[in-house]
Amino acid sequence: MCPMTDVVTRADLTSYLFNKQANISAWPPELEPVAEMVRGTAFFPGGSGFWEPEQEQGLPDVMVVGQDFSTKSEHQAMLAGLASDVDSATWRNFLKLAKAASLDLQSCFFTNAIMGLRKGGSCTGPNPGYVRRNKDFVAATHDFLLEQVQVVRPRLIVILGLPAARVFAAIAADLASWRTLKFRELDARELSIRKAIRIGDVTTTCVVLLHPSYRQANLRYRRLDTPTCSDPEISLLKNAIAEALPTEETTGVQR
After folding, report:
1. Is 99 a domain residue?
2. How far apart are CA 63 and CA 78, in angstroms?
3. Which of 53, 124, 208, 217 could crosslink 48 through cysteines, CB 3.0-4.6 Å?
4. For residues 164 and 159, what is the distance between their CA atoms, to the nearest angstrom?
5. How far apart are CA 202 and CA 149, in angstroms?
6. Strands 62-66 and 156-160
7. Residue 144 belongs to what H/E stretch?
8. Residues in domain Uracil-DNA glycosylase-like (predicted)?
9. What is the pLDDT of residue 250?
10. pLDDT band at 138, cuts 50/70/90?
11. Quick one: which H or E segment has residue 199?
12. Over the chain, what is the mean pLDDT?
């Protein structure tokens, strides 16, 4: 059953979702909730989720979704002004990709599939709390990701990395193939972009990309037919944008 959601505005979106994620109670021992958001640009729930939070527009057309925010120590450094999320490899590499693919950052809500902070260890690799033994937290994760999609109602969801894609596979039957397949298999079967995907009561386009942290090193794992572009993910993201966010030029219709 889909969670019930309220109608929110762009200005209210971050605080609405932050209050909702604070209701998650089944935290596994490896994770803890985010108690305070950092100022400036940062993925939700560590920050506002907006490139320019002060921009007053409608709800974003695009959700950009990673696996989880980071570790407790990295988040504390950001709160203390000793580090910035936007200086991370995730942002540096994603910004280059977004520019090359002409993705409007102001149209995006940057968030994560799994809430909370890792108490220790690395910020990379599969989330240590999102495992079968923590069934209540896994269920809460699925409910909250569904809540995010139904509140934002994005026309395009850009998913960063296979761990985040696995979570989407658990909430959308149309994405079941993403549960086990690797990038080469997804590309070979033309499953990296999925159109008209039902997530709760939202119909959207989904595209899965390499996680930006190691994007250049892992491009060799993509097997996309892009003879005119040396970076296959640029073409992939451009195609997803054209499919989900048609312009006047591509549709011939005045908006």
Report:
1. yes
2. 23
3. 53
4. 7
5. 7
6. parallel
7. helix 135-152
8. 60-219
9. 41
10. very high
11. strand 193-199
12. 90
Question: Is 239 inside a domain boundary?
Answer: yes
Spatial distance between the Cα atoms of 141 and 68, rounded to a whole number of angstroms: 11
Domain with residue 208: its CATH number is 3.40.470.10
* Full residue range of the structural domain in which residue 24 is found: 10-244
What is the arithmetic mean of pLDDT over 121-136? 92
| CA 167/CA 146 separation, integer angstroms | 10
Q: Is the pLDDT of residue 2 over 60?
A: no
The tally of CA atoms less than 13 A away on the side-chain side of residue 36 is 8
Taking the C-alpha atoms of residue 29 and residue 118, their distance in angstroms, rounded to an integer, is 9
* Residue 151, both tokens: 């509140």
Confidence of residue 33 (pLDDT cuts 50, 70, 90): very high
Q: Give CA–CA dist 60/57, Å, rounded.
A: 8
Which pair of structure tokens corresponds to residue 163?
Answer: 């761990």
Question: Crossing angle for the helix pair 135-152 and 10-21, nearest 10 degrees?
Answer: 170
Q: Are 18 and 45 in contact (CB under 8 A)?
A: yes
Q: What are phi and psi of 2, to 5 degrees?
A: -75, 140
- Residue 102 — left, alpha, or beta (φ > 0 → left; ψ -120 to 50 → alpha)? left
The amino acid occupying position 216 is Q
Let me know: does 41 contact 134? Beta carbons within 8 Å.
Answer: no
- Give 154-174 pLDDT, tens digit per residue: 999 999 999 999 999 999 999
Averaged over 166-184, what is the pLDDT? 95
- How many angstroms separate the CA atoms of 42 and 37, rounded? 9
Q: Pick the closest to residue 31 from 71, 82, 87, 90 (CA basis).
A: 71
Alpha-carbon distance of 24 to 140, in angstroms, equals 7
Residue identified by tokens 């599939």 is 113
Structural contact between residues 157 and 194, judged by C-beta atoms closer than 8 angstroms: no
Position 186 in a domain: yes
Angle subtended at Cα 102 by Cα 158 and Cα 78, rounded to the nearest 5 degrees: 60
